[in-house]
Amino acid sequence: MSGPGVTTQAKHTLLSVGDYEVFQLMDNHPNEFLFNIQDSAENRGLFSEQLPNRALTGNSEYPYDLPVSYLFKDNRTVIINAKNGSTAGANDGVLTMIGCHYSDMPVKAIREIIYEGERADIAQRSAKGRFFAYGIELNFGKGNNDELSVAIDIFNELAFELYYLTSSHDTSKPFTVQIEDLTTDRQLFREPTPSANILGVGQRPFVLPVTRIFSAKGTISITAVNGPASGIHTGYLVLSGANLRREDYRAT
Predict the structure, then answer these.
(1) What is the extent of the structural domain holding 195?
(2) Do residues 59 and 201 make contact, with C-beta atoms less than 8 angstroms apart?
(3) Residue 198 located in a structural domain
C-alpha cells in the first residue's frame, strides 16, 4: 500500500490437500491498516467490517491466537480486502494465517499435536462455533471528556460468544468504557472502566476470564468517555469470539 487510504485486494486459493483450519493471525506491516478476510463460499467476512490490524494480529513473539478457530473447506479462495491507514505512508508487509491442512490424518490427532499443554483449552473451544469479530469506531472528535454512545447489532441467525476485548486506540490517551447487553439489560462492568484495564491489542488481547453470550438479533451498547487530558483521537473497539448456531449454546 503506497500511501494514506490506499485500498488493495489479495486472493489466495488454498491447496487441494484437505480443509485448512486457521489458528493464528500474524502481520509485519510497519503501520496500521484496516482489513477483512472473506471465505469465498460465505456471504460475509470474518469481521463485521474492515478492522485495524493492531487489534487482530500478532507476531512470532506475541501471536494472535484466534479464540476459536476458523475452518476453510478444501480448495476455497481466501479474499483479503485492506485499506491503508489515513496517516500511513508506504506500508508494505505480509499478513500470515497460520494453521494446518487436514489430509488423511485424523482430525483428533492433529488437534492433539497442535494443542498441547496450555493450548488445550483452545482446542475445546474450537469444537463449537466459528471465529468472528465485531468492531466499531470510537472517534473522540470533540477532544477531552467527549462522550460517545454507539451500538453493535448481532446477526439475526447467530448468537455471539465474546472471548477477547482489543482496541487500536493510542494507549497514551485513556478513556472509560461500559458495555451493555440490551437484550438482558445487563452491563459487563459494575461501572465505566478505564480502557487500560480491559482493552488489549492483537499481540496481547484482554482475555475474559469467563465468556459472555449475546443472543441472536440482540444489540450490544457501548458508552465511552474520553479522558480529561486525552485530546482528539480515534480508534476501533474490537470484540472477538465465536458465532454460535442455536444448538451450540443455551441462552441464560
Answers:
(1) 130-248
(2) no
(3) yes
